[in-house]
Amino acid sequence: MVQIANKIINEVLYTYPENFRAYKALIAAKYSGADVKVAPNFVFGETNKSDGFLKKFPAGKVPAYESADGKVLLTESNAIAYYVANATLRGSDVATQAAIYQWASWADSELLPASCAWVFPYLGIMQFNKQNVERAKNDLLAALKVLDGHLLTRTFLVTERITLADIIVFTTLIHAFQNVLDASIRSSLVNVQRWFLTLANQPQVASVVGNIVLCEAPPTYDPKKYQDLNQSKKEGGKKDKKTEKKEQPKKKEKEEKPEPSLEDEIEKPKESKDPFDSMPKGYVMRCTIFGHKS
């Protein structure tokens, strides 16, 4: 690892814009002073399928991290965030570290599946199923009630300062706060809202995620969004097949690919490595809308 004035430099994070999983490491780096740069020419669906990328990261998952000397290669987003964090974010003793790990696991198992299942239909990524959405909503709100109670007497989740626990839970909840947790719901989760806004307004956080606009009114399902996304996907698929057929004689010619769309991973289970895939259908949807689950 190359260091200058005790700061890690030239570390690379492979990701596409607004990947909430990548936010974890980028925010942690802001606090620790790690010089993590996002790979400037990364193209989702192309870069992460290239031979060079797969040689370093065989699963083709993003976000992916490479140290300055190329000796440290990581994919799982929590692991990357931990690696670039400092002692304050990681926890100064084993008990604190375990508590931080507990919240990180809780975010992945309790918050993320329910948030995805509630948010996705309103983004047009999947068809609306009232029963599934209601169940997801109830599950997420139940989890947030637990979080609200925990934060009643605390500013942050584990210590008196921001740790990886706060960063990971915060980034996991961003899309719920933007799309489904309207003002009425937030009024019953005053401690969670206070904590979320405290995090969002930290300079180190805001410099990564920008200004987060909260959902103010209950979301409404627009079937046209789902139809448009599916139509776009079908047309893109036909175009790719025609291009592939036309350019067969040319060896390894670069194939033009559309920008990464939110439903790509959901519609391609054979390419997904998402552990949620093995869970019962009808509730836990693939939470890989923003890239491979990592």
Task: Please outline the helices and strands.
Elements: E1 3-4, E2 7-8, E3 11-14, H1 20-32, E4 36-38, H2 51-56, E5 64-66, E6 73-74, H3 77-84, H4 87-90, H5 94-123, H6 130-150, H7 164-179, H8 183-186, H9 190-200, H10 203-209, H11 223-246
Parallel strand pairs: 3-4
Antiparallel strand pairs: 1-2, 3-5, 5-6
Helix pairs in contact: 1-3, 1-7, 1-10, 5-6, 5-7
What structural category characterises the helix and strand content?
Answer: mainly alpha
Gyration radius, rounded: 20 Å
Find the CATH topology of the domain at 3-88.
Glutaredoxin
By CATH, the architecture of the domain at 3-88 is named 3-Layer(aba) Sandwich
Fold and architecture overview:
- Residues 224-260, 267-276 have a biased composition (Basic and acidic residues).
- Belongs to the GST superfamily.
- This protein is mainly alpha-helical and 294 residues long.
- It has a domain at 3-88: Glutaredoxin.
- The protein is built from eleven helices and six strands.
- The strands form two sheets. A four-stranded mixed sheet has the order 4-3-5-6. It has a two-stranded antiparallel ribbon with strand order 1-2.
- Helix 1 (20-32) runs antiparallel to helix 10.
- The longest helix is centred in the middle third of the chain and has 30 residues, at 94-123.
